[in-house]
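Entry, Tuesday afternoon. Goal for today is a structural model of the target with pyridoxal-5'-phosphate bound, before we commit to ordering more compound. Inputs were pasted exactly as handed over by J.K., no edits. I checked the ligand SMILES twice against the vendor sheet because last time a stereocentre got dropped in transcription.
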Amino acid sequence: MKAKTKPAMEVPYFDLTAQYELLRAEITAAIDDVCGKAAFILGEQVEQFEHGFAEYCGVKHCVALNSGTSALHLALLAAGIGAGDEVITTSDTFIATAEAIHYTGATPVFVDIHPSTANIDPAQIEKAITPRTRAIIPVHLYGRPVDLDAIAEIAHRRRLTLIEDACQAHGARYHGKRVGGFGQSAAFSFYPGKNLGAYGEGGALTTNDDEIAKLARSLRSHGETSRYQHAYIGYNYRMDGFQGAVLNVKLEHLDEWTAKRQEYAALYRQLLADAPVDLPEDAPDVDCVYHLFVVYVNQRDKVRSELADRGVQTAVHYPKPVHLQGAFQHLGYHPGSLPHAERACERVLSMPIFPEMSREQVEYAARALVEVTK
Ligand SMILES: *Cc1c(COP(=O)(O)O)cnc(C)c1O
């Protein structure tokens, strides 16, 4: 065996420390403001963020929550989804999408992806609709908006509620309009690693519907309608003041960070043009915000370890589709149920992409991938 030599460059998969160095003064001031006002739960900073993020998404309301999972849960509850209902979603997603459906007592119904985009295939949605179907939750996977025209048309014609899982897609545009307002409501996550990340857990529900916003506000705070008046059994899903403070600072930078991600994605695409890797397609007039830059390769695990030898750290999103997870075994899916999602999970590889990495690191990572796949 050849002795391992030190790689010419190190490319971490992800690193938030450089970003903190840039924002340190602003963030410490914002956190100090929360402490000075003892506004630890909700409060001024959170309200300011709700207004700022609603405006950013081009929607009427933003309800700040403690996670993206809570946002999905409340979106479903506010739509009246519960036991006996079916909700259609994709299997190529983070498990939270399906968990939120299960929390309401409804059953997730998984539909296959379109292999060219890794997003839910609208043509398959129609076939999965039964008399019990009440809603569709498409996921803008990796920051790439789904085919919203096609899905909204199905939802409208079949009278189903459309809820966007926009947890990976802050600021992504479909036909020029930002996601978050295409359905009855949308869920965003501010998990630290997301494009807009808090310094802890965070999430939001966005909607243009006054009643949905009102209900979500009540449900996030124990079903309270006024002080100690509880019209519903709710939850403790409120956002912390610190998270609102951090998000207010970071929201100002989101567009510049997204532009960097898009620049690096374009560079990867250019450098990988002749490599034996498959890349998800960006449809015209759909603006992906590249939460992740994924490629599809044969012998993925071997490619990963050879990249690691060259100093390039990678990740896998996701190694197993949700319909084959042990948690959803009771639904009776089996290998072969959703072939495109299963094949995607076998071949998918996430390359490093974050605004603070250098152009040289992207070039190095892309060249390393070309080398190890040729
Ligand atoms: C991150 C994520 C969630 C869950 O968000 P949390 O804030 O971690 O609860 C849901 N769906 C998708 C697609 C996600 O990426």
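Residues 19-251 form a domain with the Aspartate Aminotransferase; domain 2 fold (CATH 3.40.640.10).
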